[in-house]
């Protein structure tokens, strides 16, 4: 019988950029995000014999993606072996359907590994808590740890596999408006970009230090239900992330000229009294946060820059009933 799980991407308001442990994917600092209500990944895991297989959007995945899936399934098999389950030696057919743009800075790896963690844990017969599923998803892609969580999540950096996981946090009511200026896969993956930043950016330590402070400020702003402060922190932190990345050698630049135009338009909105703030992950697409009632007005202002989607806070990764 197959296990099916559905997970949504998340967009960080306080960004994760840099690992303290590459193998365990322990980040250098914590982060905070909103889980989206669209662009889901639905993943089916069916145990089998022979080799693992991975099909994405109806096509067999390339060797690199298949290898990453097998490495992840090995973690699940190890947990199954530790739990004394017979499934520990089984291989798996993994089938994923991704409703959003893949690898263009719209967090497809987060929804992908969150869905895979939930479906694979179930298929192998593991009974894991949300915290343990978050820890497992983290091993696939750091940001996936946050997609386990409904609405808003804080990923505690931690210092070990046990202490690095995401959990829910209350945040002010908000919507997100994404501007997809380019739906193509990015040239430098987050994984490669993070290593290059750590190895060559002279601002890396400053980035780590400020991110710790920023997360504390964000948690305080959320506790105060202070939307404006949450927005200001988000936009400043996005600029800081792109600054530390741009200072790599050779330089990596994820934002395109049109991305900057969107940031400018968001600043112009604020001048006009429309309260909106912008952020961008490791790609050229920009995500705007605003109050839910302003989402339509915000979307109208940026419609000329790319494909627009509006998001509300969405559900954490969860199992679907098997067909
Ligand atoms: O989880 P990864 O390896 O795809 O890295 C995500 C990095 C950013 O999206 C740029 C920031 C974040 O916190 O999601």
UniProtKB/TrEMBL annotation:
EC number: 4.1.1.33
Domain Diphosphomevalonate decarboxylase-like N-terminal: 7-166
Keyword presence, Nucleotide-binding: yes
One Gene Ontology cellular component annotation held by this UniProt entry: cytosol
Mvd1 C-terminal domain: residues covered: 180-303
GO biological process: isopentenyl diphosphate biosynthetic process, mevalonate pathway
Molecular function terms from GO: ATP binding; diphosphomevalonate decarboxylase activity
Top EC class for this record: lyase
Glycoprotein among keywords: no
Record key words, sorted: ATP-binding, Lipid biosynthesis, Lipid metabolism, Lyase, Nucleotide-binding
Pfam families found in the cross-reference section: MDD_C, MVD-like_N
Family: Belongs to the diphosphomevalonate decarboxylase family.
NCBIfam families in UniProt: mevDPdecarb
The protein's name: diphosphomevalonate decarboxylase
Organism: Enteractinococcus coprophilus
